């Protein structure tokens, strides 16, 4: 299968689909939410909706039942911007009363140029401005006897897993990225606040915590790894503290700094999941230099070997860019050769796109669209072959899985410790699922493997 543009399931800027389950009382003012962008944006949406829910608003899963709609936008790529504009237009057509927030909200003139009738435009994590806009459009009407806020707030993900955002912003200056311009420099949350939120989530039944930020490895650097109320703001300490809560802990967006190796023993000991999501982006030093990223691909291979020596079960996920300006065929071949050596478990790839405001736009020697497509196809063929071989090696093993869904036919969709929601593969159980519940962690014998997914049956020891 070929794609004319970056396929949605391989874009690094997509969040899981929002899920709503809040009932509505008679006469309750109702706000719809469209949440685009990355999981970090999904957390922003949850915080906005939690505040609105506390003020007496109901949350609508569609346009028609809402008094107004909030569109939380993405501005990571030009294609994501176009998707955001399309979503705003759809909300205007279906509802007519639209408030825009999120990363693309930092470009108000751009949004109003396409959709001048939006009620308000606010930038990323400007919660108070969003609330003010909602109040102006749809005054609150709380009922103190009914509108009781759950201890965990409003969640847009299934109840058994939750994203845990530990910081905002980023100090990197990658030429292809404008996230620091939109979300600012690194701003870490105090460790005790992160732990308290995690404790509440686990107490409410969350079985998996997905740690997210723009640069998880740098957590606490801006606040000098401050210690407060018994918790130190350093990713190693935070991971250890989170691991003590008894839930699965999965780390996303981890840059391969030297101190990352301190996390590996925690994985080997079972305290956190043996899973690292690392944005390598490329392997050729010249390409990485043009990206303004650390050009140490050979040392990265050494690090990967060391991680696997200390924790043989570790799963490594990454995303890459092909067709970056100036990328030669030789540079691309270096990336393919690096993939052969690295043997990453989970891989996503997207074709380079100009993004308004990114410094990479001004680089010479942009790669033609047909060449980018060809390289994407070849890269994904390589990644798929690696994935298929790695999954085939799991046949016959008994592994832990978490149950995400059980459909009307009794087929259970699950994930292993090697699979993050929405972006990785699944394990399916198609018989013997009577009595199984969503959110359970069970043991499964793997009996079949595909390119990205597994199939299995419940272990007889269960």
From TrEMBL:
Family annotation (InterPro entries): Elp3/MiaA/NifB-like_rSAM, Methylthiotransferase, Methylthiotransferase_N, Methylthiotransferase_N_sf, NA-bd_OB-fold, Ribosomal_uS12_MeSTrfase_RimO, rSAM, rSAM_horseshoe
GO molecular-function terms, A-Z: 4 iron, 4 sulfur cluster binding; aspartic acid methylthiotransferase activity; metal ion binding; protein methylthiotransferase activity
Renumbered residue ranges of the record's region Disordered: 1-29
GO biological process, one term: tRNA modification
Domain Radical SAM core: 156-389
Domain (MTTase N-terminal) ranges: 29-139
UniProt keyword annotations, A-Z: 4Fe-4S, Cytoplasm, Iron, Iron-sulfur, Metal-binding, Ribonucleoprotein, Ribosomal protein, S-adenosyl-L-methionine, Transferase
Subcellular location, record wording: Cytoplasm
Enzyme Commission number: 2.8.4.4
Cofactor detail note: Binds 2 [4Fe-4S] clusters. One cluster is coordinated with 3 cysteines and an exchangeable S-adenosyl-L-methionine.
Needed co-factor(s): [4Fe-4S] cluster
Binding site for [4Fe-4S] cluster 1: 38, 74, 103
SUPFAM superfamilies for this protein: Radical SAM enzymes
Protein family membership: Belongs to the methylthiotransferase family. RimO subfamily.
HAMAP family membership: MTTase_RimO
Function comment: Catalyzes the methylthiolation of an aspartic acid residue of ribosomal protein uS12.
Protein name as it appears in the record: Ribosomal protein uS12 methylthiotransferase RimO
Organism: Aliiroseovarius sediminilitoris
């Amino acid at each position: 299968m070929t794609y004319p543009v970056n396929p949605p399931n391989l874009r690094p800027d997509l969040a899981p689909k929002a899920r709503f389950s809040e009932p509505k009382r008679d006469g309750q003012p109702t706000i719809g939410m469209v949440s685009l962008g990355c999981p970090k944006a999904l957390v922003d949406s949850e915080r906005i909706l939690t505040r609105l829910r506390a003020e007496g608003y109901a949350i609508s899963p569609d346009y028609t039942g809402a008094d107004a709609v909030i569109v939380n936008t993405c501005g990571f790529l030009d294609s994501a911007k176009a998707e955001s504009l399309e979503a705003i237009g759809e909300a205007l057509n279906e509802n007519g009363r639209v408030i825009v927030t999120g990363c693309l909200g930092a470009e108000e003139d751009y949004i109003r140029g396409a959709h001048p009738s939006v009620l308000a435009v606010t930038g990323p994590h400007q919660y108070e401005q969003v609330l003010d806009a909602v109040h102006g459009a749809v005054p609150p009407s709380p009922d103190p006897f009914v509108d009781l806020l759950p201890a965990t707030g409003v969640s847009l993900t299934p109840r058994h897993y939750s994203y845990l955002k530990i910081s905002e912003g980023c100090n990197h200056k990658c030429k292809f990225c404008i996230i620091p311009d939109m979300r600012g420099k690194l701003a870490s949350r105090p460790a005790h606040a992160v732990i308290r939120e995690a404790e509440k989530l686990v107490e409410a039944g969350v079985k998996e915590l997905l740690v997210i930020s723009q640069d998880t490895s740098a957590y606490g650097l801006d606040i000098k790894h401050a210690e407060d109320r018994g918790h130190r703001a350093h990713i190693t300490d935070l991971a250890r503290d989170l691991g003590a809560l008894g839930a699965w802990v999965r780390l996303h967006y981890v840059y391969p700094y030297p101190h990352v190796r301190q996390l590996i023993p925690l994985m080997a000991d079972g305290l956190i999941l043996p899973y690292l999501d690392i944005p390598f982006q490329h392997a050729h030093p010249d390409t990485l230099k043009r990206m303004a990223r650390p050009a140490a691909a050979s040392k990265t291979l050494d690090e990967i070997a060391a991680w696997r020596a200390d924790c043989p079960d570790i799963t490594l996920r990454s995303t890459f860019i092909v067709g970056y300006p100036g990328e030669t065929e030789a540079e691309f071949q270096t990336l393919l050769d690096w993939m052969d050596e690295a043997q990453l478990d989970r891989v996503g790839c997207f074709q380079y796109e100009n993004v308004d405001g990114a410094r990479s736009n001004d680089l010479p020697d942009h790669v033609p669209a047909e060449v980018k497509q060809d390289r994407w196809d070849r890269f994904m063929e390589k990644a798929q072959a690696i994935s298929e071989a790695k999954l085939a090696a799991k046949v016959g093993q008994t592994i832990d899985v978490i149950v995400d869904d059980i459909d009307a036919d009794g087929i259970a969709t699950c994930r292993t410790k090697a699979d993050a929601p929405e972006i990785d593969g699944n394990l399916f159980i198609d018989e013997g699922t009577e009595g199984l519940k969503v959110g359970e962690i069970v043991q499964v014998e793997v009996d079949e493997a595909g390119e990205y997914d597994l199939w299995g049956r419940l272990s007889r020891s269960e």
